Task: inverse folding
């Protein structure tokens, strides 16, 4: 490794969206991490040492200090992870760092065990935030209760939109609602489950239902009043 490369650390992101991290009071103050294009092509950002100033007093002013590249990289990864839902010791977004200035292919080749551990935690985190999305959707049934990253996580896990309505664009955006009671509808609904309004008359005509037996109709008939 060249001497210049000792000044770098490489942030590796398996997030399907680009990340923008701001570190106030630090120079440089902002870091943009590219989105991952899959487990074999993570987003890469090279980080150098950063500087910051500490105020001492009116006579001496501020003292310039330096944060090493590994300190900067660790702070970026840890701060992002700690801001997310669903994290614990077994569940964490796939954003990590390694020493040196490395390309994606070099990271995967040099640290296969570490990358495997990162991906295990990453997909556990995907499952955790999708579980949260299920609960929030069932409670609120509103597109704002589910984030884009939760939908991307569900897609990455191969979840079905029939079982997880929040994955469906039409359901997620609240575009399908009953014309009578305004309750949210499944995209394939024929009858509203809330008020029983027929929302697709043509398809409803094609349905067939079991016929009632005469004795059942008679059993439900109201009793005559005594004279």
Result:
């Amino acid at each position: 490794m060249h001497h210049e490369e000792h000044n770098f650390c490489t942030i590796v992101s398996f997030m399907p969206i680009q990340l923008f991290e701001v570190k106030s009071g630090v120079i440089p103050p902002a870091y943009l991490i590219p989105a991952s294009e899959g487990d074999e092509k993570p987003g890469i950002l090279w980080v150098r040492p950063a500087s910051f100033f500490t105020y001492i007093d009116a006579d001496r002013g501020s003292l310039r200090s330096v944060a090493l590249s590994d300190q900067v990289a660790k702070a970026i990864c840890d701060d992002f992870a700690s801001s997310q839902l669903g994290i614990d010791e077994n569940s964490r977004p796939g954003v990590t760092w390694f020493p040196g200035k490395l390309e994606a292919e070099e990271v995967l080749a040099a640290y296969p065990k570490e990358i495997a551990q990162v991906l295990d935690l990453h997909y556990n985190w995907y499952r955790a935030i999708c579980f949260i999305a299920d609960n929030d959707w069932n409670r609120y049934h509103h597109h704002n209760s589910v984030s884009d990253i939760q939908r991307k996580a569900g897609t990455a896990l191969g979840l079905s939109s029939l079982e997880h309505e929040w994955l469906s664009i039409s359901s997620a955006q609240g575009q399908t609602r009953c014309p009578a009671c305004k309750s949210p509808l499944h995209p394939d609904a024929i009858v509203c489950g809330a008020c029983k309004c027929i929302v697709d008359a043509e398809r409803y005509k094609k349905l067939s239902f079991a016929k009632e037996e005469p004795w059942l109709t008679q059993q439900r008939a109201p009793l005559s009043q005594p004279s």
About this structure: The mean pLDDT is 86. The chain has seven helices and eight strands. The beta strands are 9-13, 19-22, 26-27, 30-33, 43-47, 50-57, 61-67, 95-99. The chain has two domains: 3-142, 178-220.
